[in-house]
């Protein structure tokens, strides 16, 4: 009799233990991100996103850079929840209006990807997962590593436009502040150095770099590189709306590789935060390792992108699946 009671108690305890994660998920409204989240609800979801990313890249090569930047700007501010994509409407202040978002573009092509998904699986694939997966596929188009990424994010119903600057570092901030911002979302020093390697592709508006070449050239900058920048940015007071820009990496400007770190060691960092990586004792060893080994850079970049993409996502019954990435669903 006692043995039977023990077995019954053991089985009951085991059942409760096994069901506990489901019970916690039910009451909290949260679930975990997972690989192939859309396998049943929209089997071709990831393939559709990949097809659109390739098509847009072939037509507008710079879209691939935009997808990578979208991931950073969306995920570091509160959550990977597509709050970045919301327009200013009905009391919502768009994050895109922040000074930190200067130069961001190609948002309209997110709508192109969303439309392709909606035609096959209406109100199923979140805009937050579009941000994540388009970045994953964009990285490949830029010659970077294939990043294995989980899905199941849901979309925010609010924007964080008023607090963007509390999360996204400025190009003039100290490297210690930059490191602390990334560490607050779980990205370590090595991962932060790798993520800044995304500056290997794309371009920077002159308004963000002229302070390093006017009225005098920053003494940490290579003189020949400074002359190149003056040619790209001929005035110390550029129009923020003007299409005046310079590239961080002139050797392989549309390839995500370790030339960024080689340039830093040659005193050719474009932004102040870039060049500081070589002078800070916490970051400089990683700069040297990444400059010497592109495979190591790609490995650390992949790891850090995953950490970034999984920052505090909305899951389960949190948030919503937006029909249009630009607007909260109407009730």
TrEMBL record:
Active site per UniProt: 73 (proton acceptor)
Binding positions for Ca(2+) 1 per the UniProt entry: 74, 77, 81, 83, 95
Plant heme peroxidase family profile domain segment(s): 32-329
CDD domains, per the entry: secretory_peroxidase (cd00693)
Record Gene3D superfamilies: 1.10.520.10, Peroxidase, domain 2 (1.10.420.10)
Origin superkingdom: Eukaryota
First and last residue of the signal peptide: 1-29
Protein's name in the database: Peroxidase
Organism in which the protein naturally occurs: Populus trichocarpa (Western balsam poplar)
Lineage: Eukaryota, Viridiplantae, Streptophyta, Embryophyta, Tracheophyta
Gene name tied to this protein: PO2
């Amino acid at each position: 009799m006692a043995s039977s009671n023990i077995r019954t108690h053991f089985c009951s305890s085991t059942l409760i233990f096994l069901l506990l994660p489901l019970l916690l998920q039910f009451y909290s409204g949260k679930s975990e991100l997972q690989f192939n989240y859309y396998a049943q609800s929209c089997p071709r979801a990831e393939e559709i996103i990949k097809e659109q990313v390739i098509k847009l890249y072939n037509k507008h090569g710079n879209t691939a850079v935009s997808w990578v930047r979208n991931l950073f700007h969306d995920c570091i501010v509160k959550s990977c929840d597509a709050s970045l994509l919301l327009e200013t409407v009905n009391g919502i202040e768009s994050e895109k209006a922040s000074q930190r978002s200067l130069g961001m573009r190609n948002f309209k092509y997110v709508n192109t990807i969303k439309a392709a998904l909606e035609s096959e699986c209406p109100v199923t694939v979140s805009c937050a997962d579009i941000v994540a997966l388009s970045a994953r596929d964009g990285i490949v188009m830029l010659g970077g590593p294939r990043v294995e990424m989980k899905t199941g994010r849901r979309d925010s119903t609010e924007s964080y436009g008023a607090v963007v600057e509390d999360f996204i570092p400025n190009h003039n901030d100290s490297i210690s502040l930059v490191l602390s911002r990334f560490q607050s979302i779980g990205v370590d020093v090595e991962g932060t150095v790798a993520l800044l390697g995304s500056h290997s592709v794309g371009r920077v508006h002159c308004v963000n770099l002229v302070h390093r070449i006017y009225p005098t050239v920053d003494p940490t900058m290579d003189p020949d590189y400074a002359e190149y920048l003056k040619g790209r940015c001929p005035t110390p007071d550029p129009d923020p709306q003007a299409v005046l820009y310079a590239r961080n990496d002139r050797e392989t400007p549309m390839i995500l590789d370790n030339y960024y770190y080689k340039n830093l060691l040659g005193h050719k960092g474009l932004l102040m935060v870039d060049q500081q990586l070589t002078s800070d004792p916490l970051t400089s060893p990683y700069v040297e390792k990444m400059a010497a080994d592109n495979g190591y850079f790609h490995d650390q970049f992949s790891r850090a992108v995953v950490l970034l993409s999984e920052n505090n996502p909305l899951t389960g019954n949190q948030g919503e699946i937006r029909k249009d990435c630009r607007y909260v669903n109407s009730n």
